[in-house]
Each structure stands twice: as C-alpha cells, then as structure tokens.
Amino acid sequence: MLDLYRKSSNILKTTLTEENYLKALFHLVDNEGKVTINELSKFLNVKMPSVNNMMKKFAEKKWVIYETYKPLIVTENGRREAALVVRKHRLTEMFLVKKMNFGWENVHEIAEQLEHVHSQIFFDKMDEILDYPKFDPHGEPIPDKDGNIIAQDLQKLSSCEVGETVIFASVTLSDDAFLSYLNERKLLLNTKVKITKIESFDKSMTIEIGGEKEILSKKATEKILVKK
User: Residue limits of the HTH dtxR-type domain (predicted)?
Assistant: First the structure.
C-alpha cells in the first residue's frame, strides 16, 4: 500500500511559502508578464529583502527572470506553476460548494489550507467528480491540469452606464464579508442586472434584479465583474 501511495503522489516540489508567492505572482502579473518586488511585498505583507531572496530562488528554478532594480519577468514555467496552485484552490472551493453545500462566502479559508496538498491525483479526481468545471464558485476560471486558463472578456460594473443590462459573472475579491453583502442583496452569479441610476455625488448605483431594486456602493461596483 505504501508503494502504491508513493507512485500515485507527486514528489514534493514546492514549499507552502513558495506556493503563496506563486499565487501572488499569478494575481499581480501584468499583460507583459511583469511584476515588481514592491508589488509582491505589499500584496504578501512581507519585507522587501525577504521577497528579493525568494525571487532569487525562483530565478534559479527558472520561474522568473530576476534583475536588480528591474521588474520581474514571470517565465512560462513560472506562470504554469502559479496556475497549478490556483487550480488546486479553485477546484477545492468548487467542491466545497457543489458537493458539501458550503456557501460561496465560507470556502476561501478552507481552500487556503487544502491547496497545499501535494497530490495531483487528488485534485484530478476532484475535477472528475465535479465534471470538469471551467469556473469556481466566484466566477473565476479554473486552470486545467496543464496550467491553461480561459480568457474572459469582463468589465467592472462601475464602468457600465444607466440603462444597460448585464450579467453578473465574477468578483475581484472573494472576501467573506463582501460575499455576504452580495447574498443579502440576492446578487448571485449569472444574475441579470439592469442599471437604473448612478448617483453623481458618490457614484453609488441603483440596480434592478428580478423586478427588485438594490443600491450598491461604488466600492462594491468596483469589485463586481459583468459581461454584456
């Protein structure tokens, strides 16, 4: 049994800390594949010297191209490694919602723990049980087992105009408090939203959902992504 377990499990390649850095790269990298040490430091709340040391290790693993005083360039290998960590997180969230009946506001912290399990077959089986979902409970795309990810053409709700009808597709922040805020307003994924008013003073937005009106703050509309 022990030999079978060894054969079916991945060799430990990354530490928990490395995986957290990889996730940060995934979320921060720009369209040119670049991210700065300062951005990573602020995102992770880690001091700059520590980030520099870790990025030197990443450069040795060919995950980034590191040059002093220049933005990091995330390599294709680095992008793939980062996407695979995110894949584990998002698959776990989907499993918790679809198979264990957790609310979408209660899954992030659990997924943060399970994403560090180093067994590919565990997550591949989870993927199979879920029938290979393309998106997580928050509308974010789930990378496949090769690290590929679906591109989405979404925009912030805050950029929409009065009279437009859009579909709520994703959130930029899966914070528990924010998701509970959306639950209270019955604003769920794939809901049709009609914009009826935007206040000139504070840019708060009145929307219509199934005949009911709700008022959203500018802060909320910045975090909601929609498609037309």
Answer: 14-75
